[in-house]
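Weekly structure sync, notes
Attendees: PL, DS, HV (note-taker this week)

Item 1: DNA-binding protein
DS walked through the input record. Source organism listed as Streptomyces salyersiae. Sequence as pasted into the shared doc:
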Amino acid sequence: MDAAQQEATARARELQRSWYGEPLGALFRRLIDDLGLNQARLAAVLGLSAPMLSQLMSGQRAKIGNPAVVQRVQALQELAGQVADGSVSAGEATDRMEEIKKSQGGSVLTGTGQTTTSGGAPTVRRVVREIQSLLRSVAAAGDIIDAADSLAPTHPELAEFLRVYGAGRTADAVAHYEGHQS
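Item 1 (cont.): predicted structure, written out as tokens:
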């Protein structure tokens, strides 16, 4: 790989970090490990071709163009967390992955019980991921930051919202959300 390719890959991974919270290679490898998948199976569940998944993982391509695929990634992240904490068995996870594979990506806030806590309310992380997904489907992180900078002098709270949810890390957005729910 020459210097220009290395620079383009580094730039793509940095964009991925701003859009998805981390480079997609790390995110996808974690999903593969946590859910016991291989790359071909992950690509199939997400609705991507194997070459496209490989390009996203390697940083040859920065952005997932289809919002439904982004939502499937988020659903798999939540599922991996449920498998890790023992609330979902391996068998149930396989069934859920089939449901995720068939999903068209619609709003997860009005979806099935798989996106809610036992009490029926959407999980905070799920709500935050939905907000992030919506903002990031409208504009790139850099554009959201530019908009936030424009709003900051007159509307600092709105500017903070755009920065946190539009370009920040999910953990920071969850903390912001929880801090504003009192």
